[in-house]
Task: structure prediction
Amino acid sequence: MRSVLYYFFQCLFRFFLKLTANVVLIGQDKVTPGPCLLVSNHISHFDPCFILACIRPRLDFMAMEELFINPYASWFFTYLDVFPVSRKKTDTRAIRTALKRLEMGRIVCVFPEGGLRSGKESVLEGAELKPGAAILAEMSGVPVRPFIFLGTDRYYSYRLGERIPLFFIVGDELKLNPALKGKQAREELNERIAQSFRELYAEVKQSPGFTDAVVPRTAQKRWEEARR
Result:
């Protein structure tokens, strides 16, 4: 039943994208069944829905614990194999859950920026990346695959009939450097993840159809654009 519900929503979001967006997919086939850590930038609340639509293998999402406060929402997300994580402290429960899913051969999708980020607060623009993904990679021994998603924040100012340009680009697989150990290995991997995000962003900027309107903005700025 869980699989049926998951694939129902995957098809639903794919249909929604076909109606409302022009999607540019680059490297989508690089995402193969796990175990793997899939790490993404995070620019809007719509990201998980569209990631689910664009990636064929089944994903387990790590999501902020605030989404689980309502018991009905908690049941729904849990049934879809989404699990909560605290953004205010080191969440050992979430770490254990992620490691268990990876041991089961699953793909765990995380947003290592720790929340919605755009502009100078985003790793895409040079901000420092939190080390959570590198820590999970070290503890689990699984590879990390970065990707970026651009355009989903445009849905904050969506107008009926509009087709939003979305860019989805998947990077190369990254692993811990076997020549390094402990903190040094984690920091080196974390820097390579951050660099991969920036290189993918630079690549997307060269894609046909990319304009300044695709550059990530906060929800507040998108709402202001909608009122103009």
Observations:
- The CA atoms of residues 23 and 166 lie 5 Å apart.
- The longest helix spans residues 182-205.
- The longest strand covers residues 144-150.
- The two ends are 45 Å apart (CA to CA).
